[in-house]
Amino acid sequence: MQYYSMKRSLLTIIFFLSCIYIFAQNKQTIKCDSNYKNKGITIKLINFETEKEGYDGEKNSILIISQKVNNKSSILVKDSIFSGTQQVEFRDFNNDKIKDILIQNISDVRSNWTYNLYLYNSKTNNFKRVIGFEEIKNPSYNSTYNIIESHVISGTNWAAFYKIKNYKVFDYQIEITDDGSKKSDKEYRQALKKISEKK
């Protein structure tokens, strides 16, 4: 009798803990038909912690990019990431005119955002994460020069320049002031010239 009572208590505790875990999760599902027509691609972002800070190497979410064709589902990407706001964006970052997937990573005290980037490959119909991209603040793609620009709001606003090579971030090691002055405009043009000469 005592054995069954203990067993029932243990099962009750397990049930309540599993309910807490399930309700603590925040799941977002996005169908990507408007960006990847007739590909059956879906993004699922499952947040399993409420922590909003995002310390070095910390994870709080599971990203699943899947595909469903002819009622057959397959997982293209499954990754553990950090995302403070769970925001998903679609922007082209490799000049193929097809939008890639950005998952918000962190936002600092000045609201400089960083992202996890997954580039889409139309030939393989798959995605691959760009290593180190989450270090770039406020990234934007400059299609003319095929580079990534980072414009950072700080005590002194500044900009930096990067490139994606073999799914890794290459840093040009060029930083300029970015305060809208004639001096910063000149520095910007000089930086682009220096980058174009390195190609």
What would you note in describing this structure?
With 199 residues, the chain is an alpha+beta fold. It has helices at residues 2-24, 182-198, and strands spanning 26-31, 41-47, 61-69, 72-81, 88-91, 100-107, 113-121, 126-129, 139-142, 147-152, 158-165, 168-177. Residues 15-24 have low confidence and may be disordered.
Layout of strands and helices, then pairs:
Elements lengths: L1 H23 L1 E6 L9 E7 L13 E9 L2 E10 L6 E4 L8 E8 L5 E9 L4 E4 L9 E4 L4 E6 L5 E8 L2 E10 L4 H17 L1
Antiparallel strand pairs: 1-2, 2-3, 3-4, 5-6, 6-7, 7-8, 9-10, 10-11, 11-12
Rg from alpha-carbon coordinates: 22 Å
Number of strands: 12
Mean pLDDT: 87
Low-confidence residue ranges = 15-24
Characteristic terms for this protein:
2 helices, globular, 4-stranded antiparallel beta sheet, 199 residues, alpha+beta, 12 strands
What does this entry show, briefly?
The chain has 2 helices and 12 strands; from the N terminus they run αββββββββββββα. The chain has 199 residues and is an alpha+beta fold.
